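Hi support team,

I submitted a single chain yesterday and got back a structure, but I'm not sure I'm reading the token output correctly. Could someone confirm the output below corresponds to the sequence I sent? I've pasted both exactly as they appear in my results page.

Thanks,
R.
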Amino acid sequence: MTDKSNAEITKGYYDSLANELYKECWGGENHHMGIFDHTDDFYEAAQRANENLVGKLKVKQGDILLDIGSGFCGLPRYIAAHTAVEKVYGLNISEKENEYAREKNRKEGLDDRIEVIDGDFHDMPFKDESFDLIVSQDSMLHSPDEAKMLRECARVLKKGGQFVFTDILELPGLTREEAEIVYARIQVPYLGTFDRYKEELPKAGFEIEEIQDLGSSNLAKSYQSVHDNLKGKKDYLVKEKKIPAEMVEKTLEALKFWVDRASEGKIGWGLFSTVKR
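Hi R., thanks for writing in. Yes, this is the structure output for that exact sequence:
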């Protein structure tokens, strides 16, 4: 699978009717995992994930930040509203998501500080050393070539700049048969692991400062919340949004598979805080 084919597949998926599913069932703010400490509410948990990641950043007045795989721009809006960054760029491959994000940024009065760019994080449309900070939330699992993606991040980040990201990770207990089902859902040849990132980040020029295991249980609860939201809205999505019932059922089945594997400790979630050497 080439980078181009994967980019086309990913773009096609998020620009399809799946866009409506994501807006309805992930809440229209983010579509990333949540930290469920002291809460059972998915939206509170997602906010805590924002707080946790941003808490790792050493933001200086005037910094320029890039979010790769920015989705609905929930994290860029949080960063723009809660830190001293001068400008946030959101790089994202889905045109439909980007249109939605630009409109939401405008409605929240943040469009002057957030710029959404159509693009692929394997081939970024930015000059070398353009950014003081790079972040990403649970989007890098879509990469079929993590090494190339990490090199691109290093290229566009200034020396001494931070790169902080979370990602969904394969854990040792996942069987080959189960892994193939996971890979097929997101159309990649493999999923990242803690060990692979530990190996590839230094090769790309990053020093790892912290690795945080965010837990399979948070992953399971996040996907369970989305599954339950989708199940509860099925009739509305089919009747009002004209989404085929078969598509909704297949998505429910896929979500349940991820819930079960995460509950078994076979898929995990981690945060990596790094600095470009």
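A quick pointer for reading it: The two ends are 31 Å apart (CA to CA). Let us know if anything else looks off.

Best,
Support desk
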